Amino acid sequence: MQTSYFRAVVLAAACVASQGAHAQLFGDDQARQAILDLRQRFDAAVNAQNRLVDENTQLRRSMLDLQQQIEAMRSDLAKSRGQEEQFARELSELQKSQEALKEGLDERLQKLETTEEARASQGGADGPGGGAADPAEKQQYDAAMEVFRSGDFKASQSGFANFIKSYPNSQLAPSALFWLGNAQYATRNYKEAIANFRSLLSAAPAHARAPEALLSIANCQVELKDTNGAKATLESLVKTYPQSEAAQAGRDRLAKMK
Question: Could you tell me if 200 and 178 are in contact, meaning their C-beta atoms sit under 8 angstroms apart?
Fold first, then answer.
């Protein structure tokens, strides 16, 4: 009976020990798993932080690039505004220059018309035919001059050309040739302008506009890059009409060409 009791006690002790060892083993596995879980969470947190750092760095770079683009746009805008202001100033100056040129041209035309009208009414000898202009031809000439004065140089060419065709021997024909040449010069028809200026000189070398016709021929030659021809024309102007205002302008231009 004692032996049985002892066996029972040993068996019970063994069971308790076995249960304790199992409990301890189970606790170690949970601890390992907890450590693994903790490491995974830590690694995930580190990876997330690294991603945030990378994203933050990329964002900073993007913001820097954007800032640089903004600064570049501001600089371009400032330059554009400066160019616009410069353009506005140049346009204003050009408009003033055009107005002054138009006023000078109007004054010159009025003086010329008064002189030509007086000569025509007196039967002067500027044209090959002489005699006073009749009302019809005077009206047609004045109409062409009005178109020229308005600045429509292309249309005025037709007016003067029609006048010359209708009244080739008119007292006003040389003047029509002169203003036809000027209208062609204004529209850059330099070769045709030269031909009409030469026609004036051939038909009426003593005409009041003859010196200016030579000066205008030289201007056309300069535009056509014919520098030698322009020099020869200016020399002819100075020699043929030495006392004219056009000759003085010719001397000045010859001095600049040397």
Answer: yes
* Overall residue count recorded for the chain in this entry: 258
Angstrom distance (rounded) from CA 214 to CA 207: 12
Residue 69 buriedness (CB in 10 A; 0-12 / 13-18 / 19+): exposed
- Going along the chain from its start, the domains and CATH numbers come out as 106-257 (1.25.40.10)
- Indicate the angle between helix axes 190-203 and 210-223, nearest 10 degrees: 160
Please give the radius of gyration of the chain, using alpha carbons only, rounded to the nearest integer.
51
Please state, in angstroms and rounded to a whole number, the distance separating the CA atoms of residues 258 and 241: 21
Distances (CA, A) of 207 to 23, 37, 136: 135, 114, 22
Return the half-sphere exposure (C-beta side, CA atoms, 13 A cut-off) of residue 27.
6
The whole-number pLDDT of residue 63 equals 75
Residue 49 confidence (pLDDT):
72
- Summarised one tens digit per residue, pLDDT across range 170-199 is 999 999 999 999 999 999 999 999 999 999
Query: What residue ranges in 53-204 does DSSP mark as E strands?
Result: none
Q: How far apart are CA 105 and CA 113, in angstroms?
A: 12
In angstroms, the CA 180 to CA 155 distance is: 10
CA–CA distance, 64 with 81 (Å, rounded to integer)? 25
Distance, in Å, from the CA atom of 215 to the CA atom of 169, rounded to the nearest integer, reads 24
Tokens found for residue 98:
């055009």
